Amino acid sequence: MLRWFCLAACSYLLFAASFAQAQTVTLRPRVEANGPAVTMGDVFDGAPAEVAGRAIAPSPPAGQLRSISMPVLAAAASAAGLEFTPPPGVTSVQVVRPGGARATIPASGGRSVADAAVRRGESVTLVYEAPGMSLTMRARALEDGAVGQSVRLLNTSSNRTIDAVVTGPGAARANP
């Protein structure tokens, strides 16, 4: 009798497990953190409510960006029992945290000096990221810019002009 019961219980578990599938999730087109941590719900579309609030990594400072590598995201999804396949060629995801410096466009259409996170003539920390590498250098701002605006910077080592996006006070990011 005990043998039959164990056989029936094992068969039921195997049968039930074959029909249980992990919840499939995908990356959100824009990852925006609104609290002290980047959560599963911030990163993944389709994350169930019971895991959506789980922290993955610390949020960037307000008005800043931070990268989270694809292996970290894949491990977090797996640990939560979610099915996630990283998109081909994507090695990391940029997370933005709103707030801090404001990006505003004045009525005149020009840049407002009062809202500028980068000011003309000041030294700026420029981050250039490409797959597999990240370079940080100093550059000089050729114009004022608020967070999220494109500005022209001068690489003082090579005297070349670089187009970049302001990410915070005295900081910008250039992409390949």
What does it look like?
With 176 residues, the chain is of the alpha+beta class. It folds into two domains: 89 residues, eubacterium ventriosum atcc fold (Sandwich), CATH 2.60.480; 62 residues, Roll (SH3 type barrels). The protein is 20% helix and 36% strand. The chain contains four helices and 14 strands. A five-stranded mixed beta barrel has the order 10-11-12-13-14. Strands 3-9-7 form a three-stranded mixed β-sheet. Strands 1-8 form a two-stranded parallel ribbon. A hairpin with a 4-residue loop joins strand 12 and strand 13.
What's the topology here?
Blueprint: H1 2-19, E1 23-24, E2 26-27, E3 31-32, E4 37-39, H2 40-43, E5 44-45, H3 49-52, E6 55-58, E7 65-69, H4 70-79, E8 82-83, E9 92-96, E10 123-130, E11 133-141, E12 150-155, E13 160-168, E14 171-174
Parallel strand pairs: 1-8, 3-9, 10-14
Antiparallel strand pairs: 2-5, 4-6, 7-9, 10-11, 11-12, 12-13, 13-14
Short account of what is shown:
Helix content is 20%, strand content 36%.
List keywords for this structure.
20% helix, eubacterium ventriosum atcc fold, SH3 type barrels, five-stranded mixed barrel, 2 domains, three-stranded mixed β-sheet, 176 residues, alpha+beta, 4 helices
